[in-house]
Write a structure and sequence with these properties.
The protein has 119 residues and is an all-beta fold. Helix content is 0%, strand content 52%. The strands form two sheets. Strands 2, 4, 5, 6, 9, 10 and 11 form a seven-stranded mixed sheet that branches. Strand 5 and strand 6 form a beta hairpin. It is globular and about 40 Å long.
Amino acid sequence: QVQLVESGGGLVQAGGSLRLSCAPSERSFSDYVMGWFRQAPGKEREFVGRITWSGGSTIGADSVKGRFTISRDYAKNTVYLQMNSLKREDTAVYYCAAKPNWSVDYLYWGQGTQVTVSS
């Protein structure tokens, strides 16, 4: 069973930056797509972006394009979500997820990390 562990959340002022990390428990992730999602209070979960472990391609939600980037470090087996120019509306619990390339759905999820942006 793959486990995902997120870290790096916290409280930040509007305009600031945070970097979230996601470290899978297994190293054989060449067939996995890694995604980032977020869920704000009272709202549905929103797709933020994804990165393929081998191809490195990323897709971001319109609300975060130009501000958020996704990257991965092969040596550290870690995926990152760099968040810049944070806004109050970015406040949410952020989740890391993983799925094999052949799967439509994300099969594995982290526990989530809280990001709170203050004015």
